[in-house]
Amino acid sequence: MACHVLSEMSPGGSLMSTTSETSMQHLVSSSLQAEVKLQYNSLSELLRTLLVLLSCQDTILRRKMVRIGQSLERYRDVKLQQFRSRLAMEDAHLANHLVEMLDSALTKYRTWLEKKSASRISS
C-alpha cells in the first residue's frame, strides 16, 4: 500500500497530474543552474564530513570537527551570502534549501560542542 501511494505521488503519478511539468531548465539560465549545482556540491561535501565526524571519539578527529564547524560558518558568511546577493529577487528561493541544510548542520555542530564542553567540565 505504501509503495503504491509513493508511486502515485511521484512525478508522473496520478496524484501529481495537476503539477506543472516545467523543469528547472526552463525557469533559470544555465549559468545559474551551474552555480546552484556548485553550491550544493560544496555544501554537501562539508555536510558529509560533518556527519562522519559527529560520532568521533578521537582527539585528532575532534579537532577536525571544530575546523569543519568553522568552515561551515565561513561558508555561510562568505560563499552562501555572495551567492544569495547575486540572485535576482525572483530566484532568491533557490538558496532557501541551502540555508535550511546549513542551519540544521550548524545546530547539530553547536549541540555537539555543548556536549563536549559539558563532558569536559564534569570530568
UniProtKB/TrEMBL annotation:
GO terms for cellular component: transcription factor TFIIH core complex. Residues 1-20 are annotated as: Disordered. InterPro entries: Tfb1/GTF2H1 (IPR027079). Coiled coil: none annotated. GO terms for biological process: DNA-templated transcription; nucleotide-excision repair. It comes from the Eukaryota. PANTHER family: TRANSCRIPTION INITIATION FACTOR IIH-RELATED (PTHR12856). This is General transcription factor IIH subunit 1. The gene is GTF2H1_2.
